[in-house]
Amino acid sequence: MKQPIRIAAVGDIMLGEYAALGFGVRSRSVQLGADWPLALVRERLNDFDLVVGNLEAPLSDRGRNAWRYSSVVFRGLAEAAKALREANFRALSLANNHMLQHGREVFSDTVRHLEDAGVVAVGLRNRSGGSRLATLEMRGVRLGFLGYSLWPSEAHEHENDCFPMVVGREETIIDDVRSHVKSVDHLLVCIHWGYEFVHVPSEREITLGRAIVDAGARAVLAHHPHVLQGVERYKKGLIAYSLGNFVFDMDDPACRESAILELTLTDSTLEYRWEPVWLDDTFRPAIATGEDERRILAHLAKYNTMITDESSAGDRTVEACRAASARGKVAAQRRQNRYFLKNAHRYPVRFVFVKLARKLLNLAQGRYRTAQYHRDISHA
Fold it and tell me: What is the dihedral of CA 291, 292, 297, 298, to 10 degrees?
């Protein structure tokens, strides 16, 4: 019998800046070193055989224009690839809606930086339109990873087989799992899905997650909502519906509650446990203790019951999740506005007026989202 493999799975890792532009994770990494964002969890992560997560922003300064707002947000340092590997990240999914935000060459740079550092890129598109199988071998155990995004890219789609795949076709995922499951000992699927700021998966994610396990995957590791959702044991597999944020400059307390999902895999068993994590005021993760730990564990227990509990059935409809997400986006935008006003003196002067203009636009959009939310509620 092969030895157990211990995997740590985490959520969205955004090593650039958005809300904290000019004084957030990237700026501090320039000042303090690329290893700074993960310094508080590095030792713990190295207790596992490997760590897997979702890299939510590219790692390249190619084409970066320091005077253009859209060019500087959502960019991490190239040096961060080595820092990720030193924190025991061996596989990172690139299949998400922000990875192509700065174009084809920046994405290609990111893949190269990761590979040079010894990190496997998950979610690269193959010539037939599916996901390439990324593999790792540890102590004679062969692990396979597939990656997908069910959300469209923030940039134009590019026809290139090295780009992460924006799926839109759930049958492709099932076909890929069936095609690759026999070539590895354990197959894990990373997927970008769900509704932002919602703590319960919709019926769509539940149905797809179970179908992926039915096709042969041992675990489904999901992200995108920016908040934690529950975990479901299903047959011989496990579905983590949202792993939340792991590094991300979002000030909402719900977006700062995170966790490490610890998986132990053998030929016949799969065990898991949560280790709560809190994103501090600089948005870097730290192992939660005391009241923070107890609160996050209590929330996770509640989120688990919401997946199957009949009393939550109405909350799991696509319509209800869409409406809840619209309401969550309005609340998140209001919090971002307050964060901006509180920290206005910290932003680069050249971007203050840009941020103000965007805040006014977001205010108008927030009113539209509020109206849209009430329409969704009335039709739910």
Answer: 60
